[in-house]
Amino acid sequence: MEAGTIVGLLADPVRLKVVAALALGAETLEEVAEATALSLKDVALAARRLSRAGLVHRDGHTLALHTERFGEAARAAAALAPPVPRLSADPAEDAVLQTFLRDGRLVSIPAQHSKRRVVLEHLVVVFEPGVRYPEREVNALLAAWHPDVAALRRHLVDEGLLTREAGVYWRSGGYVEV
Fold first, then answer.
1. Helix count (H) and strand count (E) of the chain?
2. What is the pLDDT of residue 86?
3. In terms of C-beta distances under 8 Å and separation of at least 24 residues, what long-range contacts does 89-98 make, across chains too?
4. Among 162, 127, 34, 60, CA closest to 47
5. What digits encode the pLDDT tens for the residues 71-86?
6. Which H helix or E strand runs over 105?
7. Which helix (H) or strand (E) holds 74?
8. CA-based diameter of the chain, in Å?
9. Is beta strand 62-65 parallel, antiparallel or unpaired with respect to 168-171?
10. Distance CA 85, CA 157 (A)
């Protein structure tokens, strides 16, 4: 069974309630109806649809959820998913970046210094070497990564990746491709 099929089945609120009741231990149409406050007719129709799809085994009034189908579908979907693009050639750095970056945004600033340094070295590449940036521009560039631009700015300066003088910043550290 495909994950999309399961999601489609569970998109209906009645079928979702039936599956939830079965997952929580209900075993008959009557028990599901009682647990979900649905009519026996609605439960029977949902159970028939879930049974035809192969997610529920139905034997008269007795129902059993094929819970293993969820795991099978998840594994199959994961096998078909495109590989996550690497953010660094170094596996240790890539692991840190995969942990703290989602969809091109920093989800949180790492508290541990070594992890924070990896993230900051990744972020500093948005600043061109030799270019001077007013604070407003630095804030705009950093806001694309995380809302706490002041903390990022401070960390970048403290780590020697950016230098600040009279409200103007420039890149002074980190890896530079030549």
1. 9, 7
2. 86
3. 93/118, 93/122, 97/122
4. 60
5. 999 999 888 878 778 8
6. strand 105-106
7. helix 68-80
8. 80
9. unpaired
10. 29
